[in-house]
Fold:
Amino acid sequence: MTLARKCVPFTPFDGDLKRMSIALVTAGGVHLREQEPFNIADELGDLTYRVFADDVESTQLMVTHHHYDHTDADQDINVVFPIDVLRDLAAEGFIGGLARKHVGYMGYTMQLKAMYEGTAPQIANEIDRGGRADAVVLTGG
Amino acid sequence: MCHRTVVAVQREIEMRGIPTVLITVSPEVSAQMRPPRALYPKGFKIGNSLGRPNMRELQRQVLRDALSLLLENTRPGSVVTREYPDYGEQYEPPHVRN
Structure:
């Protein structure tokens, strides 16, 4: 579905955060060390994304991205992908828990049409059908 | 750029009927794409969406505030700014050139 930019899709949040499973999505180039890094050599960018399970270890995550300074994320991935922070909020009862799937991709691309019509709906499908998230927190990097 | 495409992903998820909130450290760029809900932690630099490394209590507060926007009567398409003095030195966000 295409939507003019001036229209804003909006789903009201109906419920209690304490019962909700939350998913994370970041454009900050986060991936597992064992996953293929994003292709920073291609000046057109990289349209792919990486999926992480809810039990992902933050120490196994890293950043491949050449359009921002990720030295802080290299020390603590939570500054762009707050997976341990989300676990803290689940432990303190602020949210119900973590959704089954979380997503990292590299937000830099020159192929905007392919990003908007391909990658974005694919990530939404992962979160919707695969992850069963009740709500999603996104970060730009 | 990342702060632009991330809103495209956010809007797609929202169209599936799942509520979303964006944490952006490039509020003008994100606002151009009209995010359903967004939090700008004022003065945080690019690469520090949640704050600085290992500042876990600050990171928790930013994430709690972002999630709390789901419960608030925010205006779709706008970015809510919050201040976090514990972050320390503040940075000027990228500005959109017209």
Notes: The radius of gyration of chain B is 13 Å. Chain B touches chain A through 51 residues (CB under 8 Å). Residues 2-15 of chain B form the longest helix (14 residues).
